[in-house]
Amino acid sequence: MIVEGSSLPLLSLVTFVPLVGALIIAFIPKGNERAVRWTALGAAFVSFGLSLLMLIGFDPLASGFSYVERVDWIPVFGVQYKVGVDGLGAVLVVLTTTLSWISILASFGPIKERLKEYMISFLILEVGLIGVFVALDLFLFYVFWEVVLVPMYLIIGIWGGSNRIYATIKFVLYTLVGSLLMLVAILATAYTYQAATGSWTNAFDFESLRTFAGTVGFANGLQLFAFLAFFLAFAIKVPMFPFHTWLPDAHVEAPTAGSVILAAIMLKLGAYGFIRFALPLFPDAARTFAPWIIVLSLIAIIYGAIVALVQPDLKKLIAYSSVSHMGFVTLGIFVFQEQGMQGAILQMVNHGLITGALFLLVGVIYERTHDRTIAKLGGLAGRTPVYAAAFGFFVFASVGLPGLSGFVGEFLVLVGAFTANPYVAAVATSCMILAAAYLLWMFQRLFTGELSEFLTGLGGHLTDIRPVELLTLAPLGALIVVFGLFPGLILNLVQTSVTTVLESVQGGTVAAFHVLVR
Amino acid sequence: MAIPDTIPFIGLSWNDLLFLAFAALLLGSGLLVVVMRDIIRCGLAMIVCFGALAGIYVILGAPLIAGAQVLIYIGAISVLVLFAIMLTQTKAAPVRLVFQTQAVPAAILAVILALILVLVIGATDWGAAAERLQVGTAELARILFRDFVLPFEVVSVLLLAAVIGGIYLAKRELDQGEATDRG
Amino acid sequence: MTVQDLTTIAPFVAAVLVAGALIVVDLIVPGSRRATLAISLAGLAGVAIVTLITGATPGEAFGGSYRLDALTTFLDLLFVAVVALTIVFAKDYLAARDLPLAEFAAVLIFAMSGALLISAAADLLVLFLGLELMVLPGYLLAGFAKRDALSTEGAIKYFLLGSFSSAIFLFGLAFIWGLTGSTRVDVVATELGKIVAGTAPLSAGLAMGLAFLTTGVAFKIAAVPFHYWTPDAYQGSPTPVTGYLSVGPKIGAFALILRLFVGALGPLREDWLMVIVVLATVTMTLGNLVAISQDNVKRMLAYSSIAHTGYMLVGLAAWASPHSSIAGLEGLLYYGAAYSFMNLGAFAVVAALQRRRGVSSAIETFAGLGRREPALALLMTLFLLSLTGIPPTAGFLAKAYVVLAAVEAGGPAGILAVILVLNAAVAAFYYLRVVVYMYMREGKDVPAVEKSGLLRLGLAGTAILTVLLGLYPGPLVRVVEDAARALVS
Amino acid sequence: MINSLDAYLILSALLFCIGTFGFLARRNAISMLMSIELMLNAVNLAIVAFGAFNPLLREQGSIIALIVIAVAAGEATVGLAIVIAIFRNRRTPLVDEYDAMRQ
Amino acid sequence: MPYDLLILIVPTLPLAGFAFTALFGRRLQARSGRNAASALPIGAVVVSWVAAMVVAAAALGRAEPFGEHGHSIGLWQWIPAGKFVVEAGFHVDALTACLLIVVTTIGMLVHIYSIGYMSHDPGTWRFFAYLNLFMFSMLLLVLADNFLVIFVAWELVGLSSYLLIGFWYRKRSAALASKKAFIVNRVGDVGFALGIMLIFVSLGTLNVQEVLARIGELDQPTITAIALLVFCGAAGKSAQFPLHVWLPDAMEGPTPVSALIHAATMVNAGVYLVARANPIFGHAQSAMVVVAAIGIFTAILAASIAFTQTDIKRVLAYSTLSQLGYMFAALGVGAWTAAIFHLMAHGFFKGLLFLDSGSVIHAVHEEQDMRRMGGLWRRIPITYWTTLIGSLAIAGIPPLAGFFSKDEILAEAFKNGFLVVWAIGFVVAGMTAFYMFRLMGMTFWGPSHVAPEIEPLVHESPPSMTVPLVILAIPTIFLGLVLGLPFGNSLIHTWLEPVFAETLAASGHPEAAFSLFGIDGALILASVGIATVGILVAWHFFGVELLGLRRAPRPEQVTAIAEANAATRFLYRASLNKWWFDELNDLLFIRVGGRIATACWWFDRTIVDGTVNGLGALARGLGTGLRRVQTGRVQNYALGIAIGLIVMAGSYLVIVSGR
Lengths: 518, 183, 489, 103, 659
Known about the structure:
- The complex is a heteropentamer.
- Chain B has helices spanning 14-35, 39-59, 63-88, 95-98, 103-123, 137-146, 149-170.
- Chain B is an all-alpha fold.
- Chain D is mainly α.
- Chain D is elongated and about 50 Å long.
- In chain E, the strands form 2 sheets. Chain E has a two-stranded antiparallel ribbon.
- In chain E, β1 and β2 (84-92) form a beta hairpin.
- The termini of chain E are far apart.
- At the B-D interface, α1, α2, α3, α5 and α6 of B face α1, α2 and α3 of D.
């Protein structure tokens, strides 16, 4: 194994420690639920700690990738096990490890059935998610990408709500359609590289491919096809309009922690894929399609918000808000502006923290009421003031209140968009109103007024949020404030990544957009 | 009295006449096999058919094959088939029990296939000699044991396998009774 | 016939000897399952060893009608593994139904000997004989539960249609033989090469021969629209037999395709490419679409096996494309191996569940399996995921291999690649449906089935291979590379 | 014209089609089996004819035909065994009544 | 350096107070009572006030390090996104100082007043936490030296306003009002945000001083666009037409909140912003016209509505709207200093009036309808007298604060040639006097309509409430005299001269020295005259019992005039129904918007998701259809194979013949 820089394969450890945890859990005898819970949390926490170690040692100014590890995997085709992170990867890895242990902790109470399987699924899910963010080989990336699918499928399907089977199958099929086409594109790209260089060596290696794309460049036809295939896979994951309808179903049916990971990390996979792979490898195609993707992003932003307005189910509402918020991310990416992309990355992190927290909060109330219909809940503020306060905090974070992290990302995206095209920015900015409208309306219906009949009927079951539950929210809240005040913590980390990506695609889009508008 | 080389008036050679006769017999009995109601008669027609084919083999100058045809087909297979018929039914069935509802499309398909085949055969240059050739039995044996040893051995294995399996399947078990797992 | 001839065909001889030994021993000690098992497994191990030894020295035998090369060795080992696993999985199933193991194993090994012959055949007649030797015992195996109405029904359908297709295939062979003047594969290829080169006429008779051959072969691999026998034969057969039928004869028929279409008819590939493309497309698509609406797992797997036929044909098309990709053949072979283990594994789980008589293979049987039989459910999930093509399983790598080849070849094969992945997504639906039943539905409270050590071993073997071929494909990739190269050289 | 390869091949083709028709049209399993035998015989006729008219194939033809006859015998054995087995279960030789499995 | 620390203290203390109280206030109040919970926030604001006064004095005195152009302190690099760098920092100059005085003084008094006002509410700690949050936000707003930081504060005051309006969360109307306020504000904020983006894209910086210094580099359309976008934000926060609808509803909040936020401070933020950005507007005359037009239109619109409102706080709310309109009109006509003067004066007297109204409401046990009041002047004398002072001030009766500031606005409008603005402003001055004395009449004079069960319980408020009233009455009386004199070289002009000098010079309308004579004198006479007329008319209709002068109210005459003819009837209805703006918004955003949203959702489920599910169903359907082929009959299968064979043969023939 070739490990550059240090002798410790830190990234592999971060990635596979949860797998070790899962294996240990598999051998814990039945009935020992305490051991299962704490092993899972322990594994996630170790991975978290290691990722922090990785982050501490990370040099944001280093060009290229850090902590690179490389082993041949299928030498015949030049497929490698190659991992490494740049700023973007590092940030998302830490986000993943953070939310993973939080989610596991949040599952302690609600998950009572088949705990063992649940924790194993969850840890494998974490492996896949981290793997996606560290993989530097397209084949490896694809493997991790798909690995994510199965545990999530089980988590929704086994521990989900009443319509879970429909939701989970829809989730898997939708994702598969996109990702399988991406597989074709990956293979085609690698083959093109092989045909051009005459050797399979490094044909799946991201860095080699990027260099190739930057110097020789892939042929136009391949770029268009491969970009579209990548786009479909990523757009479904993000999800972008009109590929978003799996999301509300999946969110509604998933158990709380599943929703958290789904919203906080899973949706980032797509955006990450755009930045990491689609843009640098196929810059010409990216420029060609950028105007259309911007339009789709705008539709997602506005349309998601409008549809969120009338959702009767709490989780669905947040799901549609995710569509809207993730629209900002794709918008930021495809305006090809420094601020836009930085904002997009920041927004990815923020959305992860905020929406993750919101789903945790929904889980809190769902555990007590077994209902998420907004109309049935009402007047909670009087009975559960702390819960209301916490909810309010995250709602305003989601609204994009300045001072909290959501604002900076969104604003940077808008600045980027404005630089590219003011009208685009104007449309996107108007979402500020809609976001306030649907979120505050939800908040008003949930918490103000007199306690609803349904809730009154619950009597003593309706308790305020417990300290353990607050414990899961506290780190998220703290991070939201910290990143709101010091977004530089992230922005400085990803600066190099953003510059690198933008260098590969810069130019063109503004003009292209003007053509489209005319 | 010398038999003329060709049949008077028609101009066919005797060989050709024989061929035509056997061909007519072959096709006629073949048709009977597939259209007659009484399955036992079908079996008998099949024997006739096989016999006619043996005749054609002789005309084609392959007496060995003709012999094998008689021995194996008529001697073994047909008898086997007749036994099976006896075992499985006793009386002739009415037409609607004989033929599928799809008999008409089947006929049409068969005719189409025949047309295609005939046209193709006619259109193809088979690189054949004008005169047919005779094969001596000795030569045949030599080739059989030189170039075709492997197939010859394999056939024996195949027959062995078929017999072992066939015996097992056809063997009557003591504890008769329906037993199904429904798939 | 020389000694060298005999040593070269040693695997085939060894297989026949094992089968013979089984019969003899059964005559001496009737009904001894233990003895039968020991002899057959030891015998198969012996065959494998012989295969490895003879494989070390490639060569020809019987005047060039038998050709031992890397492809032969690879396929032979695969067949031996498949048959051994089938016997392992069948033992308990047969015992529970009072079906004799000795005849079963003997017939099965006879069938295997046919497959071994195909993998090495360099002569059309040998090919045909190998094919017949492979499928005739297959008919018998399908009807092996002879008191079971469904089993015999499946068997007779399989037999009738199989014989029909054999006749068609043979007619095609006759045409090709008559036109090229030889049964030797290399001579046929040379003669056809002349036609392609324009020095000899391309006749309608040749086209007819191709049509009959393609039809016959398409039937054997269960390509649409010649697949009709598959669901009925698979559903009716005793489950371990179904597992075997879905793998052994199919891979055998693909071996036939490699030897016949790639070896003998290779020069004409421009002509049969489009037919294969169309066949692959409709086979994948129809197999998957119909599988969606199946409620019986065996039948569903039958349709799924049809779809997998289509995927493998994509590899063939990739090779046959104008921009030929040898990776197509490699992918096909890799797919064959991966498919064998994952599909056998899946059927083994079904068989294990059906160990108790009267348990149907309806999908309801799987309801709540995750709770009832956690290990079996987990394995089944693994096999199904592999069949779906989710990494890091063998099924994924196999699909990726074939797709890579198709992408490499481009043109119609490139379109096939896209069709393939879309089909894979459709397939996910019905594979995952079983997972849904196992983990997300509650089933009746049925006591757990007994699982013998042998069964565990067999399942573990298939599972490990299913994972290993996905995670560590390097060695097998090298093997199939050699095999493919040996075929086209 | 009559005494040519084409004539024999056409004869073979016709017999093959008769067999095909029988296979498609008859309901009785044994009738279908007989139809298959007709088809195999048709193929054999073609093979022998090729051998008789093509100097290249002279020796091979007969041997192949012989082997095919043997294979046909094997097939018949297996087929009849299966027919007998199913007849025990179903008490009918009519194949179209064997439709317990469908769709 | 000590000033830097003081400046930092000013916003930080309230923030600390908020953080502490938000986290621990609940427990503290439960354990040690409400005074313990409110001590820290009040203390924080008091200390903050002291610090602010010191800073303001130094800044207005142009002491070092402030000098003429103020003093900036940098805090930390907030956003480092490539070229987009935002340095968080404060800037204090005379304008800031003026605002600091108003905000901290009124803020402190409202805090003290709230001790009494909220003494019965269980959520005292929460209330003070929110108030402190608001103080922080507002101070941040006036101190910030970066447009994006201003925007942050802009939104934060919106948040605190939201929290405080919705303080009584059990009241549905309060919850609705708070949401409405936030959302309507956001509409304006969108414009502001876009303006900020345009500033950045054009100039590459968001530092206020840099931007203002370099604004001239830009071309005219860009500046105009920036100005209008920024004004959009200002209009939202300051509730200018058509974004004025949230302010009256905001009266659902506790009255101290109305006084602090919705009268004295937050709503002035828009005026402050435009004044702060005066170089931008100075370079965009057409935008100035828009500002003036919207301002004066709002002024008369709101005044017309205030005529008929019966809720005491709503009358004051519309009055606030109207006065804010004045201020914008002033900004629009280039009367920068006058606008700020009026801002300060209005802050004090409107704050006073609102606190008074709170005292009244408190006295009559949470009754806000003036028709159930009357004759209260004897019962609550301190409240009565301070209200009277406030009313006179707003009516523009010399020498109270309102007289100086308002007259200066009118005069500037007249002299700068905005005759229409002057004319409307002149009319509005009369209207203002009328509705304020209508309020006085209905509340304090005339016969009592207080509900009988409450009547005996009416009492003057506790000292914690009355003392702030008295304190606020002092600037209401003397502010004008101090700042507005001497004519021609008033103190406020001296203070603010450096802030507006360049803009005034550029606009060509130098702020003329105000004098007692000539045109100025005439204008003063006119406006005092119209104010007097307004008071007298109110006197006539709504009755007075002042110093023994008795005049019975004449509601029947009011009705008669209202029903006199179609025109008056229409005007009366329009006023009563607030010109149907709520109905319009309800139609546009609730009904039509709701329909659109529902339609979108339908589209999402039926078309978007329907396509997805449809594809699934299609696959299933195809599968089910195709499986019919599998009849179970072997001959059917054979037929299929035969057909396949023929098709295959045909295909091959075609392929081969094509070679």
